[in-house]
Fold this protein.
Amino acid sequence: MKKVFALLFIFSLHLNAQQTSASKDSISVFYGKLFSALKKEYLYKDKTDWKVVEAETNKNLLQYENFKESLKEVAVLFGKIEATHCKVFYQDKGYSVPVKFLPENFSDQWKAKYASKPAFEAKVIDGKYAYILIPAITFSDVSSKNIHKIAQPLYDKIAALKTQNNIEGWIIDLRFNTGGNIYPMLLALYDLLGDDNVWGTLDINKKQIGTIELSGGKYIDNSSKVSYIDPKGVLLDKAKVAVITGSLTASSGEVTAMAFKGRPNAIFIGEQTMGMTTSNSMRSLPYGATLVLSIAYDCDRNGVFYEHIVPDIAISKKDNLDDLLSDENIQEAIKFIDKK
């Protein structure tokens, strides 16, 4: 009996050793692939001392007993290389440099609306102004079919405003747009952007390497059709548009604002945006993980880069989401629209 117990105990130790070894191996494999992707395509790859960063990371990784725990090190690594717009997704959880959120920098109205996880809105206020709230839009299936499925209902709500009302001007609220997928955001706004280049990408030397355009309801990235909406009625690409931004407007929220830079009859109101104006691409990593990797700078239709979107009219903590006509951002937007 003692002999059997001893054998079971030895077998148990051996099995645990195998599991620990497997966990350590998976950590090594994963970070090896992660570093390979970063060193090959990361926008600031040539500004990073990879030998030092990799050595420090590998030393830190020795403290972790399993792969999932080791993902805590991703934020540390990204912080060292200033990859504040990069992210690793694993089992529906994201790992990145934390965004600093100081409650005192936001109004009570903003915090209450943000906590409610606002959805897309398209409505008329005061009988003649169209109000469109575009929040963060995130999803994993980026097939053309799925993008169209998401974008078309958003576009249809905006198109209904133009066909069913006598709209004098348009207000696009991006205060709650912390990022996500740019495709449905810009496709939804097709009527207001029209058939034109709407943004682009720049290399590390700020030389333009990519152009994104809308044409006939199609989203075209460097001549390749990504997805589309079925447009209805006339374009509104000369109509007055006020774009409202906030300090947490980020990433694709900033690109949405940027798409109106260089467009006639557009004004920017609110707060300076977060400053995540790098273009990201998705890369596969081991064990079903995904890397969102910054590979270029974002630019407007004229090739101009913005570290932040700075409003023409600065307004902070004057939100009133319960009564939009009492919201100072909206009030300034209406003044712009009413001005002859």
Observations:
- Residues 105 and 317 are 8 Å apart (CA to CA).
